[in-house]
Amino acid sequence: MRHVRSDMDRIYRHGGVFIIFATCRFDPGCIVSSLRYSGDLDPYGSQPFHADNWSLLSELQWLEVNRDTGLEMDAADNGIARNLGIDGYFNAGCFECVVKPSASISGQWITLATSKYGDPVAGIIFPGQDEDKDHGLIFVLPQIERRDDLVAELVGSVLPMLRPQLFPHAEGSRWTRRPEYDLPRVSEFRNEITKIQEATRIRVRELEEQIEAECTQYGFLHDLLTASGDDLVQAVISALKTMGFADVRDVDANAKAAGDTGPRREDVRIMDAAVPVLVEVKGINGTPKEASALQVAKYLAPRMREWDRNDIHGLAIINHQRHLPALDREHEHVFQADVLSNAEDQGFGLLTTWDLFRLVRGCIVHGWSHEDVAGLLVTSGRIDPIPAHYDLVGHVDEYWAQASALGLRLQSGVLHVGDRIAYEQPLDFVEEDVTSLQLSDHSVEEAHAGDHVGLKTTLTKQQARKGARVYRVTRAPGAANPHHNAA
Questions:
Q1: 136 and 210 housed in the same domain
Q2: What tens digit of pLDDT does each residue of 38-82 get?
């Protein structure tokens, strides 16, 4: 492979097409050295000789080839394999590696097929910049079953369409569509299309990078709902730090680093809350039993004696029914009645990772501050993931789709035109400003507890479901609500 690379590169630079059936990289680890006059090897002249089974073309060095195997392959969602008429070939066979382009050629790579996990197992490298426009094509394909049929399909139908200059016998009158024979202004239009496509590719790459960064930064949110053990502990620590806690300690990791082999206690400590919080983290398949939910209470007394203080708080964070989609889990009656009463009597909190997930999303989506959520973690009993700056004002009891309005039964406080309110949804909250209030078919500037008031909304019928809780947002992020004190 390495020996013929210069010749293959020359063919590629002049428009040649390569069809490669991929397997994982194999580097035999060659070293080049030289003999001294004495016949001994010269250790100072020895150097690695980079050669592997992918050394056929210089362009292939920009591909990241990782060992992976599987039988399930699907044509990529971009539709390219289907447009080329080769999507059916990925139904039978296997792949022995996944192939990803590096950043330097990501704009010259089109994925043709993926594994069931979405990793590329087939693709095309096509020419990039203007100076490379005459370069050929490189098809990277898995070990498909009907390999001979696919090659025949590519040579007989696909490549004459993509590279007609290589197949003059198959081109027929299509030579009139070559750039040199373009009709007036067609070349101009084609250039404009190329510019738009390139700008789109650049923007797509930027968005993909942003998606990757977002997944890297907030991927722990999914672990909150699926993980157990150390992975869940790390996800909880990341969640707490995202909520603004700075001094969050991994107790087991710190003990291990210090060589402490004593009895295991709490999983996490929050040392910069209103009072120190001992956190016990558990991931379970069902709903929590008394032993798992109340275990954190056992750690409070020893820590109080050790630290000589009696204001330490306990918090149990439970990822229950973790093998179910989060919205399909039991949320109303997660904890047994005796567990709830014990938590309230003994003064420690109970929090599901689903509710922690919702709190963190509120901080990310709505900009909830640390002060808005920090106090929740030092409360007792079942913790409701409602931030401190949300005041319950009532429930939705009607919805009129044609008028884009809903009916709200006010239970407490005063609601003004210009106030900001939040509607509780199964996952997040939807915030919007009160633009008008209707009371007994009359426009009013404010409504009071006991009123049944109508107001315009952007919510859909599904979002404005009957019984949905409605909160007045007492301040915007970093600002005070002018009506809060009066209310």
A1: no
A2: 666 666 677 888 889 999 999 999 999 999 999 999 999 898 999
Domain presence at residue 480: no
Task: Please state the three-class secondary structure of the chain as a single string.
Answer: CCCCHHHHHHHHHCCCEEEEECCCCCCCCEEECCECCCCCECHHHCEEECCCCCCCCHHHHHEEEEEEEECCEEECCCCHHHHHCCHHHHHCEEEEEEEEECHHHHHHEEEEEEECCCCEEEEEECCCCHHHCCCCEEEEECEECCHHHHHHHHHHHHHHHHCHHHCHHHHHHHHHHCHHHCCCCHHHHHHHHHHHHHHHHHHHHHHHHHHHHHHHHHCHHHHHHHCCHHHHHHHHHHHHHHCCCCCEEEHHHHHHHCCCCCCCCCCEEECCCCCCEEEEEEECCCCCCHHHHHCCHHHHHHHHHHHCCCCCEEEEEEECCCCCCHHHCCCCCCCCHHHHHHHHHHCEEEEEHHHHHHHHHHHHHCCCCHHHHHHHHHCCEECCCCCCCEEEEEEEEEEECCCCEEEEEECCCEEECCCEEEEECCCCEEEEECCCEEECCEEECEEECCCEEEEECCCCCCCCCCCCEEEEECCCCCCCCCCCCCC
> Do residue 329 and residue 202 come from a single domain?
no
Per-residue pLDDT tens digits for 344-398: 888 899 999 999 999 999 999 999 999 999 999 999 999 999 999 999 999 999 9
Final residue before a domain boundary, out of 197, 215, 233: 215
